[in-house]
Amino acid sequence: MFRPLAPAALLLALLTGSAAATEAPPGPLCPAPGTAAEKAIAKHVAAAHVAVPPFADLPTAPALAPERRGSIRRVELPAGEKLVALTFDLCETENEVAGYDGEIVDELRRRHVATTFFVGGHWAATHPRRFAELAADPLFEIGNHTWTHANLRTVDDGELARQILAPEAAFRAALAGGPQCPGISPAAAKRSTLFRFPFGACDARSLGAVAGAGMAAIQWDVSTGDPSPLTGAADIVADTLRGVRPGSIVLAHANGRGFHTGAALPRLIDALTARGYRFVTVGELLARGRPVITDTCFDAHPGDTDRHDRWSAGRRPSRPPLPVAAVGLRGADAPPIAPPARRTAEPTP
Ligand SMILES: [Zn+2]
């Protein structure tokens, strides 16, 4: 029932704006639930043609701490701490508008599961409203996933800078334009501190460039294999449970490339919770332990993402990729057991 404010309270509300803050209903579309149509990936459509935002005038980024340089696969936690970081990539290549998998995002919100999204700059440019919603949500954390999902082992120096920095400008533009969610303003946009290499492929040069831009390279120790349509929901749950351990970073997709991820997610959340795990963002996971770092990036075994060089090297004139044969493991990470053959780290665009 509507009750009029007493005159003194009304005056106070007018002065402070508290009436609006307490009585106005939350924005009905902020965040809006996902729709099935949004999950579809559209190739070679006009909406995919977005300009690269200028990135020369970005605010400077604080230097990356030396102990976080390299490829972070998981985090070694104090004994007894059962934390896990679910991560979802929102990749998009230059000729497509990838999807937004609202089934996943809505479930994470419903269950209050802290999550990190690695967002492509191109995806943010074609989904500014969804980007703003994710960035506004204190449950979620945003990391940089390059401009158009390039293989950073095979690009030249100019393209390397563009792939790393253009997303930062795209994120700011997405926050500045279009409908705004409470708490979001472009002035609040900060440089990303987390980065994920597409295809799980990096080398010394690209690792150095990402570190120079102030970002820690966050890869994974558990892949759901969700970009493969052959990986069903039960497979995603079983494979993840088999691979996960305290401090794990789990790779999945929320851009329409996770074929059965949405169906698997409620079961996965239940199963991990039943095993005593608590969900945290990658940032919180890093704050709670010691990152396990390797000198290069890979999916399950050192060198297993090199195959992506074959097609991407032919697309762009660039220097040959650096050899990764001599891989030094600096952390306590042992190469994991070979995954089932159906798994793929990332789809080939
Ligand atoms: Zn990706």
From TrEMBL:
<comment type="function">
    <text>Is involved in generating a small heat-stable compound (Nod), an acylated oligomer of N-acetylglucosamine, that stimulates mitosis in various plant protoplasts.</text>
</comment>
<feature type="domain" description="NodB homology">
    <location>
        <begin position="82"/>
        <end position="280"/>
    </location>
</feature>
<feature type="region of interest" description="Disordered">
    <location>
        <begin position="300"/>
        <end position="349"/>
    </location>
</feature>
<feature type="compositionally biased region" description="Basic and acidic residues">
    <location>
        <begin position="301"/>
        <end position="312"/>
    </location>
</feature>
<dbReference type="GO" id="GO:0016810">
    <property type="term" value="F:hydrolase activity, acting on carbon-nitrogen (but not peptide) bonds"/>
</dbReference>
<dbReference type="Pfam" id="PF01522">
    <property type="entry name" value="Polysacc_deac_1"/>
</dbReference>
<dbReference type="InterPro" id="IPR050248">
    <property type="entry name" value="Polysacc_deacetylase_ArnD"/>
</dbReference>
<dbReference type="InterPro" id="IPR011330">
    <property type="entry name" value="Glyco_hydro/deAcase_b/a-brl"/>
</dbReference>
<keyword id="KW-0732">Signal</keyword>
<feature type="compositionally biased region" description="Low complexity">
    <location>
        <begin position="332"/>
        <end position="349"/>
    </location>
</feature>
<dbReference type="GO" id="GO:0005975">
    <property type="term" value="P:carbohydrate metabolic process"/>
</dbReference>
<comment type="similarity">
    <text>Belongs to the polysaccharide deacetylase family.</text>
</comment>
<dbReference type="InterPro" id="IPR002509">
    <property type="entry name" value="NODB_dom"/>
</dbReference>
<protein>
    <recommendedName>
        <fullName>Chitooligosaccharide deacetylase</fullName>
    </recommendedName>
</protein>
<feature type="signal peptide">
    <location>
        <begin position="1"/>
        <end position="21"/>
    </location>
</feature>
